[in-house]
Amino acid sequence: MATFALPMAQPKANLRQCGECQACCSWFPLLPNPDFWPEGKPAQQPCRYLCAKGCSIHDQPRPEVCTGFKCAYLTDDIPWRPDQIGVIFSAVPDNFFRMVKHPECFPSSDGGVMLVEGHSNAIVQLEAAKVRYYLGKRSIRLQYLLVLPYGTDIHNHKHGRLRTWPGLLVLCDGSSTYAEQLNDWWQRN
Q1: Does 182 reside within a domain?
Q2: pTM to 2 decimals?
Q3: pLDDT value at residue 6
Q4: Taking the CB of the first residue and of the last residue of the chain, which one, N or C, has fewer CB atoms within 10 A?
């Protein structure tokens, strides 16, 4: 009697790659790290290890902020590559709320999505309904968006510069006018 072996179901492989995108190596602000960025890395400035081909120390030990990061494009939660739309979508890092020095102001990081703007007004150029659609398809329930507008730097964040609405948190370095615009954008049908 012949027997047949059924193939084992394999988990969905992530086929997306960074390609030419280097947004996370430039747009994110990073707190000081004695081995890599003793003074920290301000927002919108390339990492000192970034070169034309990507990370020049990719094959060497690097901080967890680099090795553990995957944007929502790479995890297949959204269809847009950050460098093509000017926005990085990612899960809120576990230590983010400690970094801004006011953890009591923030919810649990579970269910949060962070948007980091790489160009002025890039978020409000996206269709909010499409963003909600793709974020709603994620396996983790979306509880809130945390937005770092273009140029916002956690190194300079002051208590009181956080604007909050139901489901939306915006860190503001300057005027809160753009924060109001972001809230209007998020509330659009």
Answers
A1: yes
A2: 0.83
A3: 47
A4: N
Give the domain range for residue 153: 70-187
Mean pLDDT (the chain, rounded): 81
Per-residue pLDDT, 129: 92
- Number of domains into which the chain is organized: 1
Which residues in the chain land under pLDDT 50?
4-9, 159-160
Exposure on the CB side of residue 131, measured as CA atoms within 13 A: 23
179 is a domain residue = yes
Question: Does some domain include residue 104?
Answer: yes
CA dist 168 and 153 (Å) reads 18
Sheet holding 168-171, edge to edge: 87-91, 112-117, 144-148, 168-171, 162-165
